[in-house]
Amino acid sequence: MPSSACLERTIAKAIDAHVSADTPPRLVAAIRHAVFPGGARVRPRLCMAVARACDGDDPELVAAAAAAIELLHCASLVHDDLPCFDDAALRRGHPSVHRAFGERLAILAGDALIVLAFQTIAQAGGHSPRRVAPLLAVVAAGAGLPAGMAAGQAWECEPQVALREYHRAKTGALFAAATQAGALASGVGPAPWKPLGDRLGEAYQVADDIRDACGSAQWLGKPAHRDAALGRPTIAAEIGLADAMPLFDRLMAEAQRAVPPGRCADALRELIRDETERLIPRALADELLLSAA
Amino acid sequence: MPSSACLERTIAKAIDAHVSADTPPRLVAAIRHAVFPGGARVRPRLCMAVARACDGDDPELVAAAAAAIELLHCASLVHDDLPCFDDAALRRGHPSVHRAFGERLAILAGDALIVLAFQTIAQAGGHSPRRVAPLLAVVAAGAGLPAGMAAGQAWECEPQVALREYHRAKTGALFAAATQAGALASGVGPAPWKPLGDRLGEAYQVADDIRDACGSAQWLGKPAHRDAALGRPTIAAEIGLADAMPLFDRLMAEAQRAVPPGRCADALRELIRDETERLIPRALADELLLSAA
């Protein structure tokens, strides 16, 4: 598993490599504010763990793919926090980008981060030029059309939403992009790695719904109870918290089983176990199950 | 010169190729509204004209590069029109995207269009995989960091702005990307083609300032006199309309001279002549010069 400091350096380098004396300083500050300090960095860690399992021969391209996925994730958070969406004042315990820099710089920082994700992959393609286009396509599908993050968010603007498609696009797509990108950047076919990303993405969204319904702003680093306040469809609202907890456990178990066999399968399963505990600490899970009994 | 109908089909195909039954229908409608009917499509036409002059061997990649540049341009218009920027109700004679679909879908359509630009290039890279990364880097630099469109727009959020850097990033960068992309997609070194894009971009911004100061909403297809209303730095405000007209003429003449010699140089110079007349019709130019005399 790459060290957390190494991952932070990789992401910081992706920004530094595309900033110059001609870049407006407040835009640079807004971009850095959007990306640091980070959250759990689960998507890039997942991408790098898959690459390790695939025994990749191009660590530079793997690091670029991981950074690109995190930059896209950060871009989506900046835009999701805007007044016309979640109107969130806090993110990761700090003021959201539009609160700190204004709405215009928040929109532009998000736009620049999306472009930067693809620039980062392009710049690292030197050793494996034939991998660039398929890697780009997989990462882009996690973010845009036909059913990536932007599409997921756009389901909130439709009169009718199927909860599963909504979640699969809003959250699952970038997890599936992370596992597939880890394989592709390593020169390995991505298909066997998609189910792992799909299951983790689904589990992550269920956890997010549970955390929003049960958590406090202090624990989450952002406002709690926003789904209910914004009238958004959630798993917790659809099937109830009591059934959401076992669903989360089941999805995480399915993710464990979706890890393809190989040298580093154990390390990947450990990552999934750590995430399970980080997302919904056992104490909270027990409390939820007890109160529902 | 590719026919205008052919270019429209290329851009439409880029969207269709990335829409599926899983894409939210209103997002797709907002994206199509942002892209059709188009404006003059000057950037993709320029890209394709340069490719023709370079005698390119990969028309599919050229078409993808041209479409990508137009998609990025459309994305920037959608975000620029938002209430926190220009708050424009009209674009190309129709309601702006946020007026027609709401602010949330306008932000998401812009995001999805940025991603789509890179997806379009990735998808067309099959015949010339080694060209994908450099082509992507050049196109991205026109849109994002360090000094592309998003950076140009962000200069409006700085306390101090140098007009030339502001315009070079806001408008010039995507023109320079268009000429360089036309060369790169054709397997030709991009450097000799940059000055042509730089000059055209600069001339285009001067024309835009003149048109905004002199034009009517009916002629422009969008509100006039917005620069003054928004207190934005413009050439017309800085040096006056009387001096802006000869500057535009001079930049267009420099663009003519910046066309590298070759088989299709005449066709490119004709494109520049047509653009000169389209941007500032001779009658308006004469009137301006006369009233300033």
Notable features of this structure?
homodimer; 293 residues; mainly alpha; Farnesyl Diphosphate Synthase; two-stranded antiparallel ribbon
Describe the structure.
The structure is a homodimer of 293-residue chains. The first copy, chain A, is mostly helical and 293 residues long. The first copy, chain A, has one domain: Farnesyl Diphosphate Synthase, CATH 1.10.600.10. Helix content of chain A is 70%, strand content 1%. Chain A contains 16 helices and two strands. Chain A has a two-stranded antiparallel sheet with strand order 1-2. In chain A, helix 14 crosses helix 16. Chain A is globular, with a radius of gyration of 18 Å.
Question: What topology emerges from the helices and strands here?
Answer:
2 copies of one chain form a homodimer.
Chain A: H1 4-16, H2 25-35, H3 42-53, H4 59-80, E1 90-91, E2 94-95, H5 97-101, H6 103-123, H7 129-143, H8 149-154, H9 163-185, H10 194-214, H11 217-220, H12 226-229, H13 235-239, H14 241-258, H15 265-279, H16 282-292
